Amino acid sequence: xxxxxxxxxxxxxxxxxxxxxxxxxxxxxxxxxxxxxxxxxxxxxxxxxxxxxxxxxxxxxxxxxxxxxxxxxxxxxxxxxxxxxxxxxxxxxxxxxxxxxxxxxxxxxxxxxxxxxxxxxxxxxxxxxxxxxxxxxxxxxxxxxxxxxxxxxxxxxxxx
Length: 160
What we know:
Blueprint: E1 17-26, E2 29-37, H1 49-64, E3 73-78, E4 84-90, H2 99-111, H3 132-147
Antiparallel strand pairs: 1-2, 2-4, 3-4
Helix pairs in contact: 1-2, 1-3, 2-3
């Protein structure tokens, strides 16, 4: 059985960044999958489920309400390894194309105040597993350490 593309990336060389993971074609449409890598794989602790869940709710809310990207957003959700998120957007895109979108999204999460959207028993299957302060901290860290002044090293997967 062939390894899927994401398992062929050398995670020992991978640093936090914003990468194109893959491009798929469905009919005439290209779907670009982005790897939003927030922590250094195998080097630092993974994110806990509560903050991952909170970032998921806030990020999805931001994207599904964005004037330009709401109709292009296919999916936003966590990686199973809890080192980042996947974002699927309609269109043939590069990482550079969405840097400002990600800066705006992570600023939204960093600055969010109030009740997390969808964090009720009626709206979510695990609504008690949320940690807004930690989600804000992680968003601030990713924004300042990765997205602001992002370099090519953090936009393209490392060579194997």
